[in-house]
Predict the structure of Aminotransferase.
Amino acid sequence: MEIQSQKLSDFFNVGRDRGWDIEKQRWTVHMLINPEGLTFTLGEILPGGIPLDLRLEKSGSRYGYPPLREAIIRTQQYDLPVENVLVTSGTQHSNFLALMVALREGDEAIVEIPSWEQPRVLCQALNVNAKIIRRRPELGWKFDLDEMASMASPKVKVIYICHPNNPTGAVLTADELKAVCEIAGRHGAYVISDEIYKGLEWTGKPTPSVANHYERGVSTSSLSKTLGMGGLRLGWLATQDRGFLERCMEFKYYISLHQQSRLDETVAFAALQPSRYRELIDRTMKAARVNFAIVSEWMATHGTFHWVAPQGAFLSFPRYDLGIPSWDMCLRLLDAPYRTYLVPGSCYGYEGYVRLGFGPGTPAETIRAGLDQIDRFVADFKAGKITAGPAVTSRRSA
Ligand SMILES: Cc1ncc(COP(=O)(O)O)c(C=O)c1O
C-alpha cells in the first residue's frame, strides 16, 4: 500500500518548517490558517488536576470508557445507544478505520472536493476509484445533488463528505444530508461524514449528524477543533450499524490495540460534561466572532479577494484575482517581509483560491496584521515587485 500525499500535508510541512519555532513552541508567522477553537489548559478542564489515583493500566472496554461514550452521545446529540459509539484516537483515526472497513480494491467511492485529503489518499492507496464531486462556489460551496446521484452505482461503497466543510465553511441542511443518504441508500453505500467542526456554526444551530439519519451513516469527530484539543488524540465514530462498528473495533486492534490513553479519556470526560462543554463552546464562539468580524469586514471591500461567506468551521476559501498560482503565492507570503501563512487552493484541487482560517486561538492583532501583509503583497505584486513563477524553493520542487 503506497501513501501519496495530494499536496495538503506537503504544504502543512512547509508552513511548519518556515513558521513554527520548535524551541519556543510558537508561530513566528501571521498564522491565517487556524481552524481551531480556543485551546483550553488542563487546569481549566480539570481544576483539581489529574486524579493521582488514576490507574495507568489498559482501559477496561474495547469500545472506550462507557461514561465517556454517554457524554459523547449527549453533547453531540446522537440518537443512539452507547453501544453505537467507538472511542478512537482522533477523527483521522476514525476516518481511517471507517474507510478501511468499508472499501476493497476495485470498489468506487464518491469523494467531495475541496475537502480533507485523507479519503482521496487512502482510496488511491487501496486502488479504489475515487470519483470526485466538486463543491461549487456558485452553489454556496455545496455540491450538486443530481450530479452526485448520477455518479452513484452499485460499485460505489462510500460517499465521503465533511461538514461543516474544511476549507469552505459550508454546512448541509438536514434535507440535503437526507438526500445524500438516499443516494447512498439506493446502492447500499456508506456515508462517512467527517463532522469534526459540528458545533462551530455561525447560526448556533448544530449541523445534522449522518448517524442520526441513515442506517449506514458513520459520523466521525473529536475534540481537536471544537475545544482546540488536537494534542489530546481523542475522537470517536458513531453509527447505527453495529456490525460495521464491530469491524472498526477489530481493525483498531491492529493499529493501537483496543486501548485508549486513560489520561486522554479522563480529560475528555471532564470536558464533555454537557454543561461544561456548552460553556466551553460558548466561550469559543464568543471569541471567534471577533476574528470573523475582522475578516468579514476585510472581505466586504476587498478588490482582489472575494469569498462566499462561510457558515461555520472558522475557515473560508476565498478566490483571488492575481496572476500567480496559489502555491507560489502562499510560499512567497511565508517569506519576509510578509511572513503570513495561508494554504494554497491547489492543495484542495482549486487553483486561484486560498484557505484562510481565523480560529479564536489566533489573536485578533495577528489576524489584522496578516491581512495587512496580504494587502502589501497584492500591492507589491501589482507594482511588478514580485514576478510570478516558482522562484521560491519548496519541498516539492526541491
Ligand atoms: C476535516 C478534518 N478531518 C480530520 C482532521 C484530523 O483531526 P483529529 O485531530 O481529530 O484527528 C482534521 C484536522 O485538521 C480536519 O480538518
